[in-house]
Specification:
This protein has a single domain, classed as Alpha-Beta Plaits, CATH 3.30.70. With about 100 residues, it is an alpha+beta fold. A hairpin with a 6-residue loop joins strand 2 and strand 3 (about 50-55). Helices cover about 35% and strands about 30% of the residues.
C-alpha cells in the first residue's frame, strides 16, 4: 500500500474556495480504482495549510488516478489558489500501532 501525503498552502482568501472544491470532488477521488481512503486535515497553527492523506493499493493505482480527468480538473482549480508550491510524498508504512 502507498500513502500519499500532499501539503498545500493556500492564500488566506482562498481556503473556503478550496474546501468547496474538495467537498465537490472527494467522493469521486475516493471512488477511483485502488483508492482505499482519503482524508483532508488542516494545520492547527496555520489555517491556510492543508494536507491530503490518501491510501492507494499500489503505485499503479495512484498513477492512474493522477492521469485521470478527475485529478486534472480538480488540480487545475486547486493550484490557482496556492500561496506556495505544494509538496508531496509517497510513503509506505513500516509499522502501525492502532486502537
Amino acid at each position: 500500500m502507498i500513502k500519499r501525503i500532499v501539503k498545500m498552502v493556500f492564500r488566506t482568501d482562498a481556503t473556503d474556495a478550496f474546501l468547496h472544491i474538495f467537498e465537490k470532488n472527494c467522493e469521486k477521488i475516493r471512488a477511483a480504482d485502488g483508492c482505499i481512503s482519503l482524508e483532508l486535515v488542516q494545520s492547527i497553527d496555520d489555517p491556510c495549510i492543508f494536507f491530503t492523506v490518501s491510501t492507494w493499493e499500489d503505485n499503479a493505482a495512484l498513477d492512474a488516478y493522477r492521469n485521470s480527468d478527475v485529478f486534472r480538473s480538480t488540480w487545475v482549480a486547486t493550484k490557482a489558489l496556492f500561496d506556495d508550491k505544494p509538496v508531496a510524498w509517497s510513503t509506505e508504512s513500516k509499522r502501525l500501532l492502532g486502537p
